Amino acid sequence: MVPSKLIRHLTTKHPSVAQKDKAYFLRLKDQSKKQVNLMSSPFKSSDKAQKARYVIANMLFKAKKPHSLAETLILLVCKEVVKIMISQEAVKEFEKIPASAETISSCINDISTTLN
Description:
This protein is mainly α. The protein contains 6 helices and no strands.
């Protein structure tokens, strides 16, 4: 936008911060970027977890089984097998795999749109 319009907007719509210096606005910008990073990082899953989710979705689709089977049976069996064969620490990696019926359904939709 044109600087004159920005200044007019600032003085008419936000008079409480119109007299603040440039450092104030830069600090606000940095804080908002940090807040976005903090909010998105817990919800991101690793590339391996994403790949595993798509593999599970593809197998369920090919077997024509319900999407809820991934959450209720497949991951539970995988966790138990890994706990017995490897260790309890390795089970934590399986907990990172998003396998709810909704995520499996979205994976199947992604796969079908990619193939078409």
